[in-house]
């Protein structure tokens, strides 16, 4: 494992590539151009100088409401270089959510792009003392605001990184969670290198000659590693896609820029497979595909392999651990599982009482690794419940098979107890998705006359329509493949599921839908 010096600033992830002579190499590709490592370094330094000139001091927060453009890495690494703390957030949220982020974090500056600017303006009304920096748009009337492009030009010049400690705050990420307000997850300067020297090195085996493309956005921990941390660490190139990653746009991007590593979530893998003509598209540049954020159904894994001849490595990570800590690899692969612990991380399964569970039984997953969050901002009680010494409580339930592969059994609060027996919603969902009529499925527990029963919400494939006959057919399908108590007694047909920004199904909202 890499030894991080005591005085360390993670923005020097760029300096490494200049020292290796990669200054003229393209660090970023996008629809309208590219940027070399030298240009990225210079703009990062200029942004850091600009923040200092605007009076942003060490450890003060800079909220980033940016889509995937070159402004994102410049603002993110520039803030860190200046000693400030960037907080990337979803650029597609409502104004009240941005207002919450600003007020909760005490942000002193907000960087917004053209797409998010109107909602950011609305969020900042009646809030004083916050610097507004605008990228790719005219300055709003009536505001004391600054154009990012003009700031970079006015403050051009190199800047040594702030003399930070490896255990100083580097950046925050807000974790949406399943309920309640988002939680500010505080990460330290040494966390990014740790993920680069564990998952990126041992699972991806990323090299300087790779080109990454992540359909999952940079504001998310998964996308941040995929398309910023990992390529910059080794001097590889990355491809940024601004706007919504629709199947057609993703396929066009792959064909144009020829990435070698492709990252997305199961929902988009499935959408691409269902996209007309997808199987005729050229994905031959890709050497490896990665999935995370929610479990990858084995049926999608098989269909993707059949369609494109490409292997998807599924794994589990979290905002709190920064990236993937348990994963399949080319050397150890079981479709449907989350793989084995990534070198550098330890996993254990415990009962609710804190005791190790017997082999083969499901337990609460705890993980240990040095990329873990320092704490939740303004969430002292939550921090105490989630961090026990070196171990982080994930809130996921898993079981381990005889070969050491971890199998997801659902969130701890998503598990369904029917007739005194635990049912994994994932197992029922995967079984339903093996039926030719089912495109996607989500399973929750519902209460009927005081007893818990299983209800499935189903999205049908094209050519199939809801009917009582189909419902009975799906139930019999599950009965034939699962234990008798695991079949869904109720099936509802739905156009789409409520999802998080990364496409993860929000089962708690399905439960609310059931109760409405």
From TrEMBL:
Gene3D superfamilies reported for this sequence: 3.30.300.30, 3.40.50.12820, 3.40.50.980, Luciferase, Domain 3
Keyword Ligase: yes
Pfam families the UniProt entry points to: AMP-binding (PF00501), AMP-binding_C (PF13193)
UniProt KW Zinc keyword: no
GO MF: acid-thiol ligase activity; ATP binding; CoA-ligase activity
InterPro entries to which the protein is assigned, alphabetical: AMP-bd_C, AMP-bd_C_sf, AMP-dep_synth/lig_dom, Benz_CoA_lig
Residues in AMP-dependent synthetase/ligase domain copies: 23-377
Domain AMP-binding enzyme C-terminal: 427-504
Keywords, comma-separated and alphabetical: Ligase
One BP term from GO: secondary metabolite biosynthetic process
PANTHER family assigned to the protein according to its UniProt record, in alphabetical order: ACETYL-COA SYNTHETASE (PTHR43352), ANTHRANILATE--COA LIGASE (PTHR43352:SF1)
Designated name of the protein: Benzoate-CoA ligase family protein
